[in-house]
Amino acid sequence: MTTQITYLINQYPKVSHSFIRREILALEAQGVRVQRIALRGWSDQVVDSQDEAERAKTQYVLREGMAGLLVALLETAIKRPLAFVRALGLAAKLGWRADRPWAYHFVYLAEACVIARWMDAAQSRHVHAHFGTNPAMVCLLVQALSAKSYSFTVHGPEEFDKPGALRLREKVRGATFVAAISSFGRSQLLRWSDLADWPKIHIVHCGLDARYQTEPQAVEPEAGRLVCIGRLCEQKGQLLLLQALKLVVEKNYSVRLVLAGDGEMRPQIEQKIARLGLGNHVEITGWISGEMVEQQLLRSRALVLPSFAEGLPVVIMEAMALARPVITTYVAGIPELVRQGESGWLVPASDVQALAEVMAACLDATPEELLQMGQRGRERVLLRHNVDTEAAKLAALFAAL
Asked: What is the CATH code for 3-207+386-399?
């Protein structure tokens, strides 16, 4: 029998959410029918043709604005008065001392009214959310309105920064199951959940699709070229990376750093580049497609990601699958995948001197040494992060419903 489930994502498609697209497509290849619902993202710029295709399959809750939400609220209050009152009381309770004011929780209730109606139309009895933030909160309210079950995947670090305000314990308690993307993530969920709920918390890694199973192109990395891929934001540590790069340049290394991505801190990063006199050593590409990310990785000696907080970055998996070493930090789930001295270099987060030293070590490494590290990393990531294997874990959990 075919399993029908609904996926709820805050914003979809999105450049940094390609792992969700891969997961959905892998589930569908295994016979699971997936209804895609997102809160927003119908008009955002996307650079990947697969994201364009996904947008056409997605329903958007906020597309009709507040008018659409109010209509859904009124219809639900009339057709399901007892359930509506129960969900209204839950929204009020969850809004007490939450990370966002009460008004947001009543908007979440309106969103849940829309989603429950769309799930009825699709004959879906279960909704799975990515991220334990507001999407999981909306799922909890969908359950109160319609008795549909829900589950969610927790990535971090946001969920672990303020678990109390995000009502993480209550979300886990109401869920059929919860997926963590790493052992570290599972440990944090155990920490913030009731002991009785521990058996429902599973590890389901983010996966790499079949194209990474074939041997990568034999591209000779450009001498002195390093790439950092990700949103330009505080937690990724790009400002600290520029300080480390300055130390490397001062040691007369020929080095070029590519910052592939965009984000809220781009103005500060551009100012820092100018202030440190690194204009000839740094390039910012803005958002790029998956194919361009792959080319950037292949052209570089290593991926550099000096994050302060993470879950387990998909770009690290992609770099390793392409046989490129990784320079990154001892945070969250990263050390579960990257092995110091085997597939890359690990440094303490925020240690500029240590980061500069391993960047120099990478630039000093011979092509043979880089190749060996890259191959070891590729073997490890393909073993742990096959999207079909990980999707099968989810499919089994959905089928058990």
From this structure: 3.40.50.2000
